[in-house]
Amino acid sequence: MSAQPAPARPAPDRRSSTVPKRTSLLPKPSSIILDASVLIAQHAQLTGTQPITIGSNSVLHPHSRISSALAPVVLGEGCVVYERAKIGVGMGAELDAESRRSSVASSRNSASTASIRGEGTVLGNNVVVESNAIVEAAEIGDGSVIQVGAVLGRGCTIGKYCTISAASIIPQNARLPDYTVVFSGCEQRIDKTLQLRPEILESKMAIHSKQLEMFKKLIPNNVAKWTG
Predict the structure, then answer these.
(1) How does pLDDT run along the chain (228 residues), one tens digit per residue?
(2) Which positions ≥6 away from 45 have C-beta within 8 Å?
(3) How far apart are the first and last CA of the chain?
(4) Of 76, 73, 92, 84, which Cα lies nearest the Cα of 29?
(5) Stated pTM of the model
(6) Which of 1, 44, 101, 128 could serve as a FRET partner for 27 with CA atoms 20 to 30 Å apart?
(7) Residue 59 CB-density burial (10 A; 0-12 exposed, 13-18 middle, 19+ buried)
Protein backbone atom coordinates (compact mmCIF):
# COMPACT_ATOMS: atom_id res chain seq x y z
CA MET A 1 0.00 0.00 0.00
CA SER A 2 1.40 3.36 -0.97
CA ALA A 3 1.69 5.96 1.77
CA GLN A 4 -0.80 8.75 1.55
CA PRO A 5 0.80 12.22 1.32
CA ALA A 6 0.44 14.25 4.46
CA PRO A 7 -2.14 16.98 4.15
CA ALA A 8 -0.67 20.36 3.42
CA ARG A 9 -0.47 22.64 6.44
CA PRO A 10 -2.60 25.73 5.89
CA ALA A 11 -0.60 28.86 5.29
CA PRO A 12 -0.90 31.45 8.01
CA ASP A 13 -3.22 34.32 7.26
CA ARG A 14 -0.95 37.33 7.06
CA ARG A 15 -3.79 39.72 6.51
CA SER A 16 -4.95 39.74 10.10
CA SER A 17 -2.99 40.37 13.25
CA THR A 18 -3.80 40.43 16.94
CA VAL A 19 -0.98 42.90 17.62
CA PRO A 20 -2.58 46.20 18.60
CA LYS A 21 -1.77 49.22 16.48
CA ARG A 22 0.91 51.37 18.02
CA THR A 23 -0.40 54.61 19.46
CA SER A 24 1.48 57.75 20.42
CA LEU A 25 2.57 58.05 24.03
CA LEU A 26 2.70 61.84 23.83
CA PRO A 27 -0.05 63.61 25.80
CA LYS A 28 -2.75 65.23 23.72
CA PRO A 29 -3.92 68.76 24.52
CA SER A 30 -7.18 69.09 26.45
CA SER A 31 -8.60 70.97 23.47
CA ILE A 32 -7.33 71.88 20.01
CA ILE A 33 -9.15 74.73 18.27
CA LEU A 34 -8.26 74.91 14.58
CA ASP A 35 -9.63 77.10 11.84
CA ALA A 36 -10.70 75.11 8.79
CA SER A 37 -7.96 76.76 6.69
CA VAL A 38 -5.04 75.70 8.94
CA LEU A 39 -2.30 73.60 7.30
CA ILE A 40 -0.57 71.05 9.55
CA ALA A 41 2.09 69.00 7.77
CA GLN A 42 2.82 65.35 8.48
CA HIS A 43 5.14 64.85 11.49
CA ALA A 44 4.21 68.19 13.05
CA GLN A 45 3.53 67.70 16.77
CA LEU A 46 0.86 69.21 19.01
CA THR A 47 1.26 67.97 22.57
CA GLY A 48 0.50 68.97 26.15
CA THR A 49 -2.34 69.17 28.61
CA GLN A 50 -3.51 72.78 28.10
CA PRO A 51 -5.52 74.17 25.15
CA ILE A 52 -3.91 74.96 21.77
CA THR A 53 -5.60 77.45 19.43
CA ILE A 54 -4.46 78.08 15.84
CA GLY A 55 -5.95 80.83 13.67
CA SER A 56 -6.87 80.84 10.00
CA ASN A 57 -4.30 80.19 7.25
CA SER A 58 -1.53 79.32 9.71
CA VAL A 59 1.06 76.75 8.60
CA LEU A 60 2.94 74.18 10.68
CA HIS A 61 5.83 72.62 8.75
CA PRO A 62 7.05 69.01 9.24
CA HIS A 63 8.68 68.34 12.63
CA SER A 64 7.56 71.66 14.09
CA ARG A 65 6.44 71.32 17.70
CA ILE A 66 3.72 73.09 19.67
CA SER A 67 3.58 72.18 23.37
CA SER A 68 0.97 73.21 25.94
CA ALA A 69 2.47 71.01 28.67
CA LEU A 70 2.75 73.93 31.11
CA ALA A 71 0.51 76.64 29.64
CA PRO A 72 -1.89 77.33 26.76
CA VAL A 73 -0.62 78.28 23.30
CA VAL A 74 -2.39 80.60 20.85
CA LEU A 75 -1.32 81.22 17.24
CA GLY A 76 -3.03 84.05 15.39
CA GLU A 77 -3.96 84.21 11.72
CA GLY A 78 -1.35 83.52 9.05
CA CYS A 79 1.42 82.30 11.35
CA VAL A 80 4.20 80.10 9.94
CA VAL A 81 6.19 77.66 12.10
CA TYR A 82 9.09 76.08 10.23
CA GLU A 83 10.85 72.72 10.65
CA ARG A 84 12.06 71.84 14.16
CA ALA A 85 10.89 75.13 15.62
CA LYS A 86 9.47 74.80 19.14
CA ILE A 87 6.72 76.91 20.67
CA GLY A 88 5.41 76.78 24.23
CA VAL A 89 6.43 77.32 27.84
CA GLY A 90 8.94 74.63 28.84
CA MET A 91 10.34 74.05 25.36
CA GLY A 92 13.67 75.68 26.14
CA ALA A 93 16.89 73.70 25.89
CA GLU A 94 17.37 73.84 29.64
CA LEU A 95 14.28 71.69 30.18
CA ASP A 96 14.67 68.09 29.04
CA ALA A 97 11.88 65.54 29.11
CA GLU A 98 12.68 64.44 32.65
CA SER A 99 12.55 67.93 34.10
CA ARG A 100 9.30 68.66 32.29
CA ARG A 101 7.72 65.56 33.83
CA SER A 102 8.87 66.61 37.28
CA SER A 103 7.54 70.12 36.69
CA VAL A 104 4.10 68.77 35.84
CA ALA A 105 4.13 66.45 38.87
CA SER A 106 5.17 69.19 41.28
CA SER A 107 2.52 71.59 39.98
CA ARG A 108 -0.06 70.02 42.26
CA ASN A 109 1.69 71.38 45.33
CA SER A 110 3.68 74.30 43.94
CA ALA A 111 2.16 77.77 43.63
CA SER A 112 5.06 78.97 41.50
CA THR A 113 4.51 76.27 38.92
CA ALA A 114 0.81 77.00 38.97
CA SER A 115 1.57 80.59 37.98
CA ILE A 116 3.75 79.34 35.12
CA ARG A 117 0.88 77.21 33.84
CA GLY A 118 -1.29 80.33 33.69
CA GLU A 119 1.11 82.43 31.59
CA GLY A 120 0.86 80.90 28.15
CA THR A 121 2.34 81.85 24.77
CA VAL A 122 0.47 84.05 22.28
CA LEU A 123 1.61 84.73 18.72
CA GLY A 124 -0.09 87.59 16.88
CA ASN A 125 -1.14 87.53 13.25
CA ASN A 126 1.42 86.71 10.52
CA VAL A 127 4.23 85.82 12.91
CA VAL A 128 7.02 83.71 11.38
CA VAL A 129 9.10 81.32 13.51
CA GLU A 130 11.97 79.89 11.47
CA SER A 131 13.77 76.55 11.80
CA ASN A 132 15.20 75.49 15.18
CA ALA A 133 13.95 78.62 16.94
CA ILE A 134 12.61 78.20 20.48
CA VAL A 135 9.75 80.42 21.62
CA GLU A 136 8.65 80.53 25.24
CA ALA A 137 7.63 84.19 25.02
CA ALA A 138 4.43 85.42 26.60
CA GLU A 139 3.52 87.45 23.51
CA ILE A 140 4.83 88.16 20.01
CA GLY A 141 3.27 91.04 18.09
CA ASP A 142 1.81 90.95 14.59
CA GLY A 143 4.21 90.48 11.68
CA SER A 144 7.32 89.72 13.73
CA VAL A 145 9.96 87.30 12.43
CA ILE A 146 11.95 84.96 14.67
CA GLN A 147 14.88 83.77 12.59
CA VAL A 148 16.79 80.48 12.56
CA GLY A 149 17.93 79.23 15.95
CA ALA A 150 16.81 82.27 17.93
CA VAL A 151 15.67 81.70 21.53
CA LEU A 152 12.93 83.75 23.20
CA GLY A 153 12.96 83.31 26.96
CA ARG A 154 9.96 82.65 29.14
CA GLY A 155 7.69 85.61 29.75
CA CYS A 156 9.31 88.02 27.30
CA THR A 157 7.15 90.34 25.16
CA ILE A 158 8.02 91.14 21.54
CA GLY A 159 6.34 94.08 19.82
CA LYS A 160 4.84 94.25 16.34
CA TYR A 161 6.97 93.88 13.19
CA CYS A 162 10.13 93.01 15.09
CA THR A 163 12.98 90.93 13.68
CA ILE A 164 14.99 88.65 15.94
CA SER A 165 18.03 87.66 13.89
CA ALA A 166 19.47 84.16 13.70
CA ALA A 167 20.85 82.66 16.94
CA SER A 168 19.92 85.71 19.03
CA ILE A 169 18.79 85.14 22.61
CA ILE A 170 16.08 87.25 24.26
CA PRO A 171 16.23 86.85 28.07
CA GLN A 172 13.27 86.01 30.25
CA ASN A 173 10.72 88.78 30.84
CA ALA A 174 12.43 91.19 28.41
CA ARG A 175 10.27 93.69 26.54
CA LEU A 176 10.96 94.90 23.01
CA PRO A 177 9.04 97.79 21.42
CA ASP A 178 7.48 97.65 17.95
CA TYR A 179 9.85 97.55 14.94
CA THR A 180 12.84 96.41 17.01
CA VAL A 181 15.63 94.56 15.20
CA VAL A 182 17.87 92.37 17.36
CA PHE A 183 21.20 91.51 15.69
CA SER A 184 24.70 90.24 16.59
CA GLY A 185 23.21 88.30 19.46
CA CYS A 186 22.01 91.18 21.64
CA GLU A 187 22.39 94.50 19.78
CA GLN A 188 19.17 96.39 19.07
CA ARG A 189 17.91 99.09 16.75
CA ILE A 190 14.57 100.38 15.49
CA ASP A 191 13.67 99.62 11.87
CA LYS A 192 12.81 103.15 10.74
CA THR A 193 12.08 101.97 7.21
CA LEU A 194 9.13 99.80 8.24
CA GLN A 195 8.08 102.29 10.88
CA LEU A 196 7.95 105.36 8.63
CA ARG A 197 7.10 103.88 5.22
CA PRO A 198 3.79 102.01 5.35
CA GLU A 199 3.99 101.06 1.67
CA ILE A 200 7.05 98.90 2.38
CA LEU A 201 5.27 97.23 5.27
CA GLU A 202 2.28 96.54 3.03
CA SER A 203 4.60 95.00 0.43
CA LYS A 204 6.20 92.79 3.07
CA MET A 205 2.81 91.52 4.22
CA ALA A 206 1.75 90.90 0.60
CA ILE A 207 4.80 88.68 0.08
CA HIS A 208 3.92 86.83 3.28
CA SER A 209 0.39 86.18 1.95
CA LYS A 210 1.81 84.77 -1.29
CA GLN A 211 4.07 82.45 0.72
CA LEU A 212 1.05 81.11 2.59
CA GLU A 213 -0.66 80.31 -0.69
CA MET A 214 2.49 78.61 -1.97
CA PHE A 215 2.73 76.41 1.12
CA LYS A 216 -0.85 75.24 0.57
CA LYS A 217 0.12 74.06 -2.92
CA LEU A 218 3.38 72.37 -1.92
CA ILE A 219 2.72 70.81 1.51
CA PRO A 220 0.21 67.95 1.97
CA ASN A 221 -2.25 68.84 4.72
CA ASN A 222 -2.53 66.39 7.62
CA VAL A 223 -4.96 68.50 9.61
CA ALA A 224 -7.54 65.69 9.65
CA LYS A 225 -5.37 63.91 12.24
CA TRP A 226 -6.10 66.68 14.71
CA THR A 227 -9.75 67.33 13.91
CA GLY A 228 -11.05 63.76 13.89
Answers:
(1) 455 555 555 555 555 444 444 444 555 677 899 999 999 999 999 999 999 999 999 999 999 999 999 999 999 999 999 999 999 999 985 444 444 443 333 333 333 333 344 479 999 999 999 999 999 999 999 999 999 999 999 999 999 999 999 999 999 999 999 999 999 878 999 999 999 999 999 999 999 999 999 999 999 999 999 986
(2) 26, 63, 64, 65, 66, 67
(3) 66
(4) 73
(5) 0.79
(6) 128
(7) buried
